[in-house]
Amino acid sequence: MKSAAIICNGDFPRKEYPRYLIREADYIICCDAALQTYLKHCQAIFGKERIPNAVIGDMDSLSASYRKRYEGLIIYDHDQETNDQTKAFRLVLDRFKDVSSIHIIGATGKRPEHTIGNLSLLMEYAREYDMEKLGISIDSVYDYGTAFPVTGSTEIHCGKDRKISIISTDNSLKISSEGLVWPTDDVVFDNLWKATLNRSCDDVVKLKFSHKSTALILLD
């Protein structure tokens, strides 16, 4: 199975791991003006220019010269009820049926509201599209770590002494845990910070959900 990299227009990664995911991706989709940023870094990542498979968005921030030069790649989507990351995500599901992993790069940094919105959308994708049933994993990778959604009880093979945060918007959810320095059993998820800034004390962190729901895991 193949992988797709969605390039958003936040902070472009400087570290090797997110760049490796771009380099190894079978499909690359840029969100609007992220095309310009992506192309500037192609030489450093690939040693040459690699044209993305598609560019999607309302093109309100992509320069006219880039729109003309890459018009054959551009998909105009003027839907104001979704952001460009979601448009790119839906495009991957619709067009690239052989994808088993989606990595979102550049979704964080710059405006904090974009960071919060883009990361929280991972939970929405997992819930609305039943990614587990589709057999597709999704994450957002940045210089400081990785964020990915879970929809129920899970085991995270992260290694000992990893920084880990758990975020959920379901205040009825209870998550009992093993392998964390500070157990989450009594946490009430009524604010985004409630189970953040934790750390693993075992190689495997076990989370048991009280019911099917969604949460966001952030690892360093």
From TrEMBL:
Keyword Thylakoid on entry: no
Keywords: ATP-binding, Kinase, Nucleotide-binding, Transferase
Transmembrane residue ranges: none
Chain ranges of the Thiamin pyrophosphokinase-like substrate-binding domain: 145-208
S-adenosyl-L-methionine among keywords: no
PANTHER family registered for this protein in UniProt: THIAMINE PYROPHOSPHOKINASE
The protein's name: Thiamine diphosphokinase
Native organism: Candidatus Cryptobacteroides avicola
